[in-house]
Amino acid sequence: MTNPKQNAQRPARTEIDAVFVRIAQAMASLGVSPLPRNYALFYEALSGRNPDLARELSALGPSPDAAKIDELGIRHNLASHATLSADKVQAQAVKLLGDVSVAMREATNRKTGFVRQLQDFALRLENDPVVAMSDFADATQAIRDQAAALLRDEASFSGRLTETVAQLSSMEGDIDALRAAATRDPSTGLPNRTAFSARLSALFLDAPPPTALVLVSLNGLRGVGERYGVDALEKALKKLAPIFRKSIKKNDFVGRIGLDELAFLFSDVSAANAEAIVSRIRASIEAIDIPLPERSFTPERLSLSAGIAMTDAASGEADLFSQAELALHAVKASGHPGQLVFSAAVGARSPRLYSPHAA
Questions:
Q1: Backbone φ/ψ region at 32: left (φ over 0), alpha (ψ -120 to 50), beta
Q2: Rounded to whole angstroms, what are the CA distances from 301 to 38, 286, 290, 292?
Q3: Which of 16, 34, 71, 291 is the most exposed place for a label (fewest CB within 10 A)?
Q4: Residue range 176-190: mean pLDDT, rounded
């Protein structure tokens, strides 16, 4: 028999946990393959983030076809389906260009035949100047008909080529949308972890100016999601996103790389400059009221912890990220919001996570 006292001591399942349980149960009951892109699609549908997707997914009924599920992900521009979308666009472009190539080849063959017909007629006139009038009339009529047919073909091909160019231009827009979906966080509109990884990888290709990597943790945001649901978390992120955008200049970068984590790259700054920038961001974040359901008069306040690492003290991208991560861990371990610039002393306190060459 279940012990009520034990049940009371058991922690309540959070809404976020419940969403993941619902995803697993829904996919299992419908017989959907446990592919990462399917998990991402079901999360979008069942978390309440995309009601239209939820309705369309439900309309597929029991045992939905895998191709139909993929079509939903492509139509809603989910980042998880960006590769499938790109493959589809590429296949369409290849087909269009192939069709145009065939049409051009056929048009060229017809033109070549027409030129040969003219050459044959000219040769007959050279060899036999006194061609019978009936032969001359027949030949000229055939040439005239062939010329008219070529003009019609040219007009048709021109129209087809114009249509193909328009379709390819539309595909270019689709590709831009795919690129945005694959590299943007849907909640904030900021670049996502994929975009951050690409930017970080490019950082050491040339000799970069002194650049600060800042890893940020939004303290309290995860708790908002756990206590009040995904919708409250999403609204909080949307309210905070403009602050992050305004904190960077032209050559800087900010992206959301986790549930409550962001990454900044500040170009051409010193460690002291980076600390000053982070201090301003912290003050802005901590001054924001986060509205919560059924708590109109007692909004939530978040705080910010940050780890800072400088490119001139790192041997490469992995080393830079590790340093910033260790500095962030040190701040969070202190139990107080704040920021910390990585140093050899910070690395020495984390020997199992940090390689000596990075000091």
A1: beta
A2: 35, 6, 6, 10
A3: 34
A4: 75
- Which residues in 284-294 are b (16+ Cβ under 10 Å) and which e? bbeeeebebee
Instruction: Collect all residues with Cβ–Cβ distance below 8 Å to 81 and sequence separation of at least 6.
Output: 37, 40, 41, 70, 73, 74
> If pLDDT is split at 50, 70 and 90, which confidence band does 216 have?
very high
Domain regions of the chain by residue span: 4-76, 83-183, 193-358
Q: β-strand 261-267 against 303-310: which pairing, if any? A: unpaired
Does residue 2 have a pLDDT over 50?
no
- Determine the Cα–Cα distance for residues 74 and 65; give it in Å rounded to an integer: 15
Residue 90: per-residue pLDDT: 63
How far apart are alpha carbons 356 and 359 in whole angstroms? 6
Over residues 128-175, the pLDDT tens digits come to 665 555 566 666 777 777 777 777 777 777 677 677 766 666 666 566
| Phi-psi label, residue 31: left if phi above 0, alpha if psi -120 to 50, beta otherwise | left
Pairing between strand 211-219 and 261-267?
A: antiparallel
Predicted local confidence at residue 154, as pLDDT: 72
What is the SS3 assignment for 303?
strand
Backbone CA torsion sign across 210, 189, 250, 221: negative
CATH of domain 193-358: 3.30.70.270
Per-residue pLDDT reduced to its tens digit, 21-73:
778 888 888 888 877 778 888 888 877 667 788 889 989 988 888 889 888 88
